[in-house]
Amino acid sequence: MGGRLDHRGEHSIDYHLSFLEDNRYHILHDLRLLNHFGSNYFQLDNVILSSPFITLIDVKNYKGVIQFDNQYHQLIQVTDGKKRSLEDPIPQIRRQKLQLKKWLKAHYFPDVPIEPLIVISNQSTIIETTGNSSHFKYITHSINLPFQIKSFEDKYPIDVITPKDLVRLGNLLKKKDTPLNYNVLEYFGIHPNELIRGVHCPKCFAIPMQRGHGKWLCRVCRFASADAHIYSIQIINYFWAMCLQTKFFANFFSLTMPGQLRPIF
């Protein structure tokens, strides 16, 4: 699927989303949908579907201190004593909420509540707000994500969409997804050798994880995973339009022992 380049931030929430009940939630990433007019596309980075409500998540990997200024609709980031103005993500995700509502109506789905969230993936980032505090209910750190969704469960105790229609909605969203295909490395002038290679840890995002005894082990937080390589494979497919060979994967994943790739593929 197509998507933005902030993959480090976006997929750092996968660990926190793993605490959600599999039979209750359907999680989709990087959707690009044609709007209800059929004239323009809109992007949804992370969509969590459930029968009582839908959650939209836009993940930001900001560092330092970030100040949300509602009066002037801007975001001020302070790093190393320097200030810079960034686009306020709150109006953007509220706009995505409206676009998805119209898309659902155009495809004859019920008016299911939609809750937008701005998730800050860097736990050391300090969040400050000024102005109308009601808008800042949309902002949370990634570690709070499961609890935030639990609060939505309490807020919306009644199912709006049936389990059958929920599966149909998920399938339709994937069917209607229209990735924007272009060579990312060429577009941003990045040489392949500049990319950090290896499998990243789904929990702390350290690179690389070490392969051993059928699992990936993080040398930083000691988290173990049998399928941590899956997202790295998605990254490879995202960056390279090429026929991927075993030798390439072994090099990218830093695997040197014969037969280490066999259990993965």
Describe the structure.
The two termini are 21 Å apart. The chain is globular, with a radius of gyration of 20 Å. The strands form three sheets. It has a five-stranded mixed beta sheet with strand order 1-2-3-7-9. The protein has helices spanning 7-10, 14-17, 89-106, 145-155, 163-176, 184-188, 229-239, 246-252; strands spanning 26-34, 41-49, 54-60, 65-69, 74-79, 82-87, 114-120, 126-130, 139-141, 210-212, 215-217, 224-225. The chain has 265 residues and is an alpha/beta fold. The chain has two domains: 7-176, 3-Layer(aba) Sandwich (Trna Endonuclease, Chain: A, domain 1); 188-252, no CATH class. The relative contact order is 0.14. Residues 5-123 form the NERD domain.
